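Record now logged for everyone:
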Amino acid sequence: MVRNKGRGGWEFPGGKLLPGETPEAAARREVMEESGASLGELDVVCTYVVEKDGRLSHGMVYTGAVTDWGQRTDTGVIGDVALFPAAPRDVSFSDGFVELMFRMHLEAGP
C-alpha cells in the first residue's frame, strides 16, 4: 500500500489511463510509479462505475503478486510504501473498500 501525502492515509496504488493505454498496463505503471513494485500475472477483482457531480468514472481493480522491487518515481504525491498483513487503521478513504479487499484476500487463502 502507499501513503498519500495529501490525504494522509494508506491506499492502494492507482490512477488514470494514459492515451492508448490498456487498463492492465495502467495498473502496472501506477503500481511501479507509486511503489516501485513489478507485478506478475494480474487478475481482475472487479470493475466499477462511480457517479459524482453528474460525471461517471469507470475503473478496474486488479490483484497480483509482486515479482520485484525497484525505484518508485512518484515521490511528489506518495510519501511511503508498506506491506500489511491486515487492513491498516489509517486509510485515506472510509468507504470500507480497503477492508473488503483484505477480507476477500484472507478468505481466498494462499
Summary: The chain has two helices and five strands.
